[in-house]
Design goal:
The chain is an alpha+beta fold and about 425 residues long. The chain has 15 helices and 18 strands.
Length: about 425
């Protein structure tokens, strides 16, 4: 029996899953799990890429202990972040998307290219951490001098395994520099910003073969984790999906980008999928819960947290997508700053966070239906949030849609599906 390895890395943890085909169904087994998270260095938030690579290699070794007959492997991660290269050498530090270094350059980027033009060209929503702003911040700081490549995070890890540098389409689209028409980097954007053109190589589609590592074929899956997750959702028809993790990605599949002024005003994004566009909204997600837990009750079981939220009668809410929640020193203080009536206990904070998420989901659903002119009946939820029955019930009540929670490894399943079809 042939096996495949999906390396799925999120902002807080990563895991290696072995996959195989059994009776027409993809079966999985987790063989390794490891922690991840941003580090503070010199006043900035960064990624420890050496630790990430070490864990990726160790997990592959663990998979090889289970079976030596592994046909291929691939890596997916969060989007927008990258590693600058000078030949084979990394430019350090590797900044994390929650770092605030882009805020100073955003006005200059929009002076060179008004955001209305950027959105019309790319269809990508405004986020302070988009790759376009990060690269311009690197240019302003002189960090691009002598740089030969920039590799998005999963492509960097694959390069370190197999020695082949690549640029995968779905992940590249998250950064705000890929043309919605051509599906390649937009040369006019690059020229107007004065970025080195040699950094922007042709984009490759999921399923592209790279080199090998320990005799295992390395393949490009849809390396943006949400793109792989959408491939892994067994939806009946085109319905709304939520990939619920550190971020909640709520969207639908559409055949071509929607770059209208109404879409821009609603701040929806058009990210690449496998033969379609993922028309979606980024919502803050379980980041809110995790940070509140770290501060209010470290280590407390999530089941107990949910029970406390269910037992609370606190009914005030916040805008879950307010930038105050992006990277606060204190998540509790961020909530307090947005609430006239302060929560009295942890249960109140968690109820507020869950209800706020459900209402933010409802708003996004309403806007998707308004912009696309289409009504949807169901919401498919995958990822860690799919296991939260309380949040799922709140989402169903708020949206008026049937919620279908699938506590499956959708991202890994999509990653494996693409590998199996390619190999």
């Amino acid at each position: 029996m042939k096996y495949y390895i999906a390396v799925d890395i999120g902002a807080s943890s990563g895991r290696h899953l072995l996959g195989w085909n059994e009776g027409g169904h993809v079966m999985t087994k987790e063989v390794y799990r490891f922690p991840n998270g941003v580090k503070e260095s010199g006043g900035h938030l960064t990624w420890d890429i050496e630790s990430l690579l070490s864990h990726v290699k160790h997990g592959i070794d663990e998979a090889l202990k289970v079976s030596s007959d592994i046909a291929s492997l691939s890596v997916d991660t969060w989007g927008v972040d990258y590693v600058l290269m000078k030949g084979d050498e990394e430019v350090r530090p590797c900044y994390a998307y929650r770092d605030t270094r882009t805020e100073a350059v955003i006005p200059e980027v929009h002076r060179l290219i008004p955001f209305e033009e950027l959105y019309a060209r790319t269809g990508i929503q405004f986020q302070t951490f988009n790759t376009i702003y990060q690269l311009y911040a690197d240019k302003a700081a002189g960090r691009l001098e002598g740089v030969t490549d920039f590799l998005m995070m999963p492509e960097y890890l694959l390069y370190k395994l197999c020695g082949v540098k690549s640029h995968e389409y779905t992940n590249a689209t998250t950064g705000g520099m890929v043309s919605a028409k051509s599906g390649q980097f937009d040369p006019e954007i690059i020229a107007k910003l004065g970025l080195p053109s040699h950094l922007f190589q042709p984009l490759q589609n999921p399923g592209t073969m790279l080199g090998t590592y320990k005799g295992i074929q390395c393949v490009l899956c849809a390396t943006h984790d949400t793109a792989s997750a959408v491939e892994g959702i067994p939806m009946e028809g085109d319905e709304i999906y939520i990939s619920s993790g550190t971020w909640s990605l709520l969207g639908v599949k559409v055949p071509k980008p929607v770059t209208t002024p109404a879409s821009m005003a609603a701040n929806f994004t058009n990210e690449g999928g496998v033969g379609y566009i993922r028309y979606l909204r980024n919502i803050m997600g379980m980041w809110l819960i995790n940070r509140l837990r770290d501060e209010l009750c470290p280590g407390k079981d999530f089941g107990e947290i949910v029970r406390e939220a269910e037992g609370s009668s606190y009914d005030f809410t916040v805008d879950a997508n307010d930038k105050a929640f992006l990277a606060p020193e204190s998540m509790k203080a961020a909530f307090d700053s947005k609430l006239d009536t302060k929560p009295a206990n942890p249960g109140d904070y968690f109820r507020c966070a869950y209800r706020s998420l459900a209402l933010t989901y409802k708003k996004a659903v309403d806007e998707i239906e308004s912009v696309t002119g289409k009504s949807y009946h169901s919401i498919y939820i995958v990822g860690g949030g799919a296991k939260n029955k309380f949040l799922n019930t709140l989402t169903e009540q708020a949206s008026g849609k049937k919620v279908i929670a699938l506590p499956i490894e959708a991202t890994a399943l999509g990653n494996l599906k693409i590998q199996m079809e390619a190999v």
